[in-house]
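User: For my dataset I need records formatted as: sequence, then structure tokens, nothing else. Please produce one.
Assistant:
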Amino acid sequence: MDMKKLLLLFPMFLFAAIAYGQNDSKLKIGDTAPDFSVKMLDGSVVNSADLKGKVVVLNFWATWCPSCRTELSRVDSEITNRFKGDDFVFIAISRGEARETVENFRRMTNHKFSIGLDTDSSIFNKFAEKMIPRVYIIGRDGKIAAAHTGYSNAQFQELVSDIDKTLKSK
């Protein structure tokens, strides 16, 4: 196959790969979120059972992911500072990376939000199979209220809106 044909087919393959990755969620809106226990970067452990009654945002990401890095650069100012309170929890869960890698990233970026470690991807695998960034909003009832995959400015604005709606619902 010549280079011209390959270049013409590339967008189609890229779209198919993205579409396939976006459909790899193991959960749908209204499903009960899986139980999990995540070791935090500060050494504490967060158990999903302790989060019942709160709106929880789980953001699965990795330091090597450019879209994840862009999304996370907005989290402190546009999510955690805006929605902080007793009934809201934001946890960025690093997927498949060593503690040292995540610590170095934190030092480099100076992010303030809570970071969990999923070094073997076992927590991520309860939610999805592949694509990051991936965000789940879990309502006070423990059910998936919204889910987002990928990053764009419009998607981020929709995420913020979904958090706001979930917090306002009783």
